[in-house]
Design a protein that fits this description.
This protein is mainly alpha-helical and 155 residues long. The protein has helices at residues 14-24, 29-35, 40-54, 59-69, 86-97, 101-108, 115-126, 131-140.
Length: 155
């Protein structure tokens, strides 16, 4: 994987950083907004604004960009529940970097029709709640790095 430069982003507000933290923990908007004691619409509005500032739309990419840009502090290191093979690491990285199922499958070198099943197995093996939580755990387990920079969302 070649390193790409970080896109120019507008700094997040303190509230946006708290919203991004909730997203990185895998919390759905209803849970994240409740945890932050704000209306779900307000939480969703902040999430949208985070995407604009980081030039990405997908929640997994927002989390990865949060770590890459330093707007989201890296999680404490954790011991992985199991070893991950090269195929699983490629899939993990693909989810942190790409917007579409086709691009994720291509990066991971798997058939697009096998993507959902492979992702479900990786989430379960990693002990993640969902794909966004998978990105956070990828950093905690040392599978992902901040040199893995997502491509900006297509306009």
């Amino acid at each position: 994987m070649t390193q790409r430069s970080v896109p120019v982003i507008t700094p997040l507000t303190a509230t946006e950083r708290r919203v991004l933290e909730q997203i990185s923990l895998g919390h759905a908007p209803a849970v994240g907004s409740s945890n932050l004691k704000m209306a779900r619409g307000t939480f969703n509005g902040h999430s949208t604004q985070i995407g604009h500032k980081m030039q990405v739309r997908k929640p997994t990419l927002k989390v990865q960009m949060g770590f890459v840009s330093g707007e989201l502090p890296l999680p404490e290191p954790l011991t992985a529940p199991a070893p991950f093979d090269e195929q699983e690491r490629l899939l993990w990285q693909a989810h942190a970097l790409h917007h579409t199922a086709a691009a994720i499958a291509k990066h991971a070198r798997i058939d697009q029709f096998d993507l959902a099943g492979a992702t479900t197995r990786l989430i379960a093996k990693a002990g993640a709640d969902n794909e966004t939580h998978l990105i956070r755990l990828g950093h905690a387990y040392g599978v992902l790095t901040t040199t893995d920079v997502p491509t900006p969302s297509p306009t």
